[in-house]
């Protein structure tokens, strides 16, 4: 074990799906997709205190909306204990800053940060690949957050190829509506037959999100946010929504548009980054 004192400020960054193509539905109901993940410098933060007993305790500012039994942080910590037979426990503090259910992956990212941080703090010495395997059982997006590098993903999101798309500044809008990933994937009218393309062709084509049309139809608030943003910058939805993002060359340009937001629309400006803030934190120890 590394240390029993507090280990502070482990970041759990958000991601954007710069494109999201749905290619097929498998017999088990899951969808095969091709997507491009890039991290943004906008994060939840987790603090950890390793304890001698195997108990896990979470203090979070979302306990009203997510029960402990469903919280991916505790599920991740339990999976690591089970996989490694580790006898240690932890007290964990979550400072939730990322909007939930917005398609920016906050829950998956919290799970990934928990696995990476506790593997370090408990000294359980799993490889990144082993952590990614455990992470995949918690959610399709967890492995990319553990890997910590922008990636082109295939399969259900678990086959990763590292890529380095341009690191734009983004204005991300948060329509005040929760979009359920499962509901979008269950909708019969979802476009699920986009042809699979090779990586080179994808990187050089125009980028789209196959869930966007459906979500815009179902959720007027998403439609309104996108209609507004697209007047200022190339804009798309991330994941299965509800967040939409516009891309800008300069921070200042993004901030100027953010200043024009009406009071009923929340948003934030963040830089795209191909190396996750989590990977940088781990390197610091
Ligand atoms: C499609 C993406 C793109 O990033 O959407 P967002 O969740 O980020 O919006 C993700 O891969 C989502 O990953 P994640 O949110 O972890 O999904 P999971 O918890 O694994 O699955 C939620 C539900 O979505 C459906 N699902 C998910 C992934 C997938 N490739 N095919 C599916 O059909 C399944 O019905 C599943 O029960
Ligand atoms: N630590 C967590 N942070 C956020 N959501 C969590 C967490 N643990 C479990 N969840 C559940 O996961 C759902 C999806 O969360 P989130 O990852 O924020 O959305 P998305 O995948 O759309 O970006 C939430 O509505 C919540 O019920």
UniProtKB/TrEMBL annotation:
According to UniProt, this protein's pathway is: Isoprenoid biosynthesis; isopentenyl diphosphate biosynthesis via DXP pathway; isopentenyl diphosphate from 1-deoxy-D-xylulose 5-phosphate: step 3/6
Q: Which GO terms describe its molecular function?
A: 4-(cytidine 5'-diphospho)-2-C-methyl-D-erythritol kinase activity
List residues of the GHMP kinase N-terminal domain: 71-148
- Enzyme Commission no: 2.7.1.148
List the InterPro entries hit by this protein, alphabetically: GHMP_kinase_C_dom, GHMP_kinase_C_sf, GHMP_kinase_N_dom, IspE, Ribosomal_Su5_D2-typ_SF, Ribsml_uS5_D2-typ_fold_subgr
Q: Which residues form the active site?
A: 15, 141
**Catalytic activity, reaction form:** 4-CDP-2-C-methyl-D-erythritol + ATP = 4-CDP-2-C-methyl-D-erythritol 2-phosphate + ADP + H(+)
Q: Which UniProt keywords apply?
A: ATP-binding, Isoprene biosynthesis, Kinase, Nucleotide-binding, Transferase
Q: Which Gene3D superfamilies match?
A: 3.30.230.10, GHMP kinase, C-terminal domain (3.30.70.890)
Q: Name one Pfam family in it.
A: GHMP_kinases_C
Which residues of the sequence carry a binding annotation for ATP? 99-109
Top enzyme class, one word, equals transferase
Q: What sequence ranges are listed for the domain GHMP kinase C-terminal?
A: 199-261
UniProt similarity note: Belongs to the GHMP kinase family. IspE subfamily.
- HAMAP family documented for this protein: IspE
Q: What's this protein's function? A: Catalyzes the phosphorylation of the position 2 hydroxy group of 4-diphosphocytidyl-2C-methyl-D-erythritol.
Recorded protein name is: 4-diphosphocytidyl-2-C-methyl-D-erythritol kinase
